[in-house]
Amino acid sequence: MRTTTLRLGVTLTACAALVAACSSSTNSGGGTTAPVPSQQEPLASLGNGEGQLNLVSWPGYAEDGSNDPKVDWVHPFEQQTGCKVNIKIGNTSDEMVQLMRTGQYDGVSASGDATLRLIYAGDVAPVNTTLVPNYDTISAFLKDQEWNSVDGKMFGIPHGWGANLLMYNTDVVKDAPDSWGAVFPGAAEYKGKVTAYDSPIYIADAALYLSKTKPELGIKNPYALTSEQLDAATELLKVQHGNIGEYWSDYTKAVQAFESGTSVIGTSWQVIANMLTTDDKIKIATVLPKEGSTGWSDTWMVSSKAAHPNCMYKWMDYITSPTVNAQVAEYFGEAPAQTKACEFTSDKNFCATFHATDADYAKRISYWTTPQKKCVDGSGDNCTAYSEWVDKWQQIKG
Amino acid sequence: MITAGRSSHRFRSRLSLAFLLIPPLAWLIVVYLGSLAVLLVSALWSTNSFTGAVVRTFTGDNIVRVLTDAVFRAATLRTVGIALAVTLICITLAVPLALYMAKVASPRVRLALVVAVTTPLWASYLVKAYAWRMLLSGQGPLAWVAGYTPGYGLVATVLTLTYLWLPYMVIPVFAAFERVPEDLIDASSDLGASGWTTLRTVMTPLVFPGIAAGSIFTFSLSMGDYIAVTIVGGKTQMLGNIIYGQLVTANNQPLAAALSLIPLFAIIGYLLAMRRTGALENV
């Protein structure tokens, strides 16, 4: 027995040594050097489709009729282009970054808190916008922004943008809240039935609330937090944790939790509200609170290792075409990136409701972006990086 | 002539033995020990703080953090606690059931019970976990019948895991009881021992290896679980959730690797403890 253990130990050590030897020969530089974006050249000309397309998508962005038979824009695309679409749903930006890093997908609907991470890790390639005809008529305030371009090169095609909403069960929450305070200091009223988004980026929601209610903290941008500001947001979320029933990151779990009454109030997306109202089992309402909200501005990006780049370009053009972009935007509940989409929405006031072409309104939403040491609002170099947010988030959840 | 024939025969039998042994040995060394080695090594790497890409320079920071961070310590204690609770409840339920199945029940009832114990293994893990989510829900059947439900949390997690792993405890304990010879029990009662004394002094030592084997299953399966707890655990976090969070959310593979050494050592520790009791010698 003893000799066997010894042999096992020797083998294990040998394996470890082998792996260590192999890894040190492929040492890819230290963490001190500044990251550089992908230097890959964009696709020069468009060829025929490759017959397949593997996408990482937010729920609701690539609907093939499996959730609601009437909601299907994937099959028409397949018929038009011959590209069979395989969809992998990403529930959080972190999950999407992880999935894209495998190199098995052709493209991703990346939010602003994933885009720069993808660009600087070389996971996505620049896009030749001349190969995407519908790009011309996309809202100007979404082009060449800091979250989707580097050095004047566009790294994707804007898709749409919107705000995270406060959702509540109207049978339980009767006073129609209009402030995020309902899930922070007011959460105790619904103790054990409050829900929140299970991602470190949710810290920004607390920071946004603090920026309005505690001006002495001096929070200007919820993604550019100093250590003290991050600690204040963490404190607020630790108090909230006591009232949380469960967190959600899988949107189907959020739907189920609201349906069963496990959750009655919390942050949500319009697409979740839509799924609850189609079932009609439960009465819910959504509101954009008076403090404003965090939100997203999403961009379809093409992988630097895409096996089906032509199909991906066709998809980016298709999804931003006026009719389809209108369909997606109405289903998901967000402002379409395509200005011409406003003519094709079934609700003629849709673009007005979502302020789709209103650049000033778009500026008031705090879009998800990756927090960095170098403050994202350019206010200095003393901000907290996303890795610190992750640690704080694990402390909050305990 | 004869010696040559014999040596070629010996050579051939060695060759066939090698053929038989190489695949499992290769599996053990390359896949199993190899992946453990990769885990050990990658725990010593770090990541780029902005892109999350792995940086292959050696550092002990992850290990130090795993050992010192209060969050990780709390999650470790919680997970070991859950695993021990699940194991103890499984033993409490399985021992009388297995004793009845092996020594009391008629062959027909015994067969029915064996089928009943193993049937849940045919259903998918997720189906069973979601069934418990429904069962324990505020408007679920339990609340309707009993007027009380523990709700989603630590208790629900222990209940669900106990349900999931119970067959893995019942089967080895049942097999162990079945192997206890009838004449030992008869001899014990002939010598005047009560049923309880027979159980305690004759059966328990013979059945203990079975209980130990079952407890290794329930303990290690509970240590590694992170799915049931996300379904019925409310906001409870187990070690598996933290490892998953570090890997997928934080994109910090090295720290995840360092964290996964905790359940590895917990299970090795449990195995060594079982070995000390002598339970593994006759299995």
Question: What's the short version?
Answer:
Chain A is an alpha/beta fold. Chain A contains 13 helices and 14 strands. The two termini of chain A are 41 Å apart.
What does this protein structure show overall?
The complex is a heterodimer of chains A (398) and B (283). By secondary structure, chain A is of the alpha/beta class. Chain A has 13 helices and 14 strands. Chain A has helices at residues 2-25, 74-81, 93-101, 112-120, 203-213, 227-241, 251-259, 270-279, 309-319, 322-332, 350-353, 359-364, 386-397; strands at 52-57, 84-89, 107-110, 124-125, 149-150, 153-154, 157-163, 165-169, 194-195, 265-268, 284-287, 294-303, 335-336, 366-367. In chain A, strands 1, 2, 3, 4, 7, 12, 13 and 14 form an 8-stranded mixed beta sheet that branches. Chain A has a 4-stranded mixed beta sheet with strand order 9-10-8-11, covered by helices on one side. A two-stranded antiparallel ribbon of chain A has the order 5-6. In chain A, a hairpin with a 2-residue loop joins strand 5 and strand 6 (153-154). In chain A, helix 3 (93-101) runs parallel beside helix 4 (112-120), helix 5 (203-213) crosses helix 6 (227-241) and helix 6 (227-241) runs parallel beside helix 13. Chain A is globular and about 60 Å long. In chain A, 51% of the residues are buried. Residues 15-33 of chain A have low confidence and may be disordered. Chain B has 2 domains: 2-42; 69-282, MetI-like fold (Orthogonal Bundle). Chain B has 283 residues and is an all-alpha fold. In chain B, strands 1-2 form a two-stranded antiparallel sheet. The longest helix of chain B is centred in the N-terminal third of the chain and has 41 residues, at 2-42. Chain B is built from 12 helices and 2 strands; from the N terminus they run H-E-E-H-H-H-H-H-H-H-H-H-H-H. In chain B, 78% of the residues lie in helices and 1% in strands. In chain B, helix 3 runs parallel beside helix 7. At the A-B interface, helix 1, helix 3 and helix 13 of A face helix 1, strand 1, helix 3 and helix 11 of B.
